[in-house]
Amino acid sequence: MNTEEMASLYGTPIWRRLRMHRNPVRMLFSGGVWASAWYLFSSIVVGLALFCIVTSITITSTALVIIWAGLPLLIGTGYFIRGCVVLERGRARAVVPEGLPALPPVETAEGFFPTLKAIWRDRITKRGLAHFTLLALPLFLLDMVVWVVWVAFLAGVTVPIWYRYIPRGFNGQHWHGLEYGYFPNGPHGKDSIGFWIGSDLSATVAAVAALVLLLAWNYVLVATARLHTDAVRNVVAPRDPLASARRVLETPGPLNTATHT
Fold this sequence. Notes:
The chain is mainly alpha-helical. The protein has eleven helices and four strands; from the N terminus they run H-H-H-H-H-H-H-H-E-E-E-E-H-H-H. The strands form two sheets. A two-stranded antiparallel sheet has the order 1-2. Strands 3-4 form a two-stranded antiparallel sheet. Helix 3 (31-63) packs across helix 9 (200-236) and helix 7 packs antiparallel against helix 9 (200-236).
């Protein structure tokens, strides 16, 4: 493993797929945007499910410790959380094809209580529990908002194709079109606020506006996917074995000078 790969695993990540292209058109057709969209969509579904399951079994097993029945459940919960971390690590390959660091094994232990102690002293188990409980809802809300807005802009680009098939009725009168705003008395009535799409020209204007917003929002989409991946990386990434040597090389001195000459 070379220095660049080590830095990607333990230091500043190198985003090969989730690149931020300066050209927004190139950004739109890059694989990173569509990989980010799929990753965030799957995170919305899987993340919410794992939050409910992990929270439920952790609370249940902890409560049953009073009657000792929860101790075997705690062991199973610990291993289940590690399994969920493995699942998240696998899902991250959608945006990080080279993969995240491998999980270190749990310390070997013989006997019931040593096994219980080993699994809950494990760094991956504790960080996984924090990830699937404390961070799950904030990440879910962030992913949901960013993904829904991106899909709305993407659908807006196609408005000229389907706007004419949406029926609207006002005071017994019927039109076909799409409304952005508030139209209590019809598209041409009083007290109307917004933009009414009822012709090819207005649909084209709306599509162009949606395209501009989509090109800008792609950067927010990819940045959110990076943030979510970093959250998973912080759970699975072990301590950098070369951290001390890296700090020496980055500190001003003769070694640092030698590496840059």
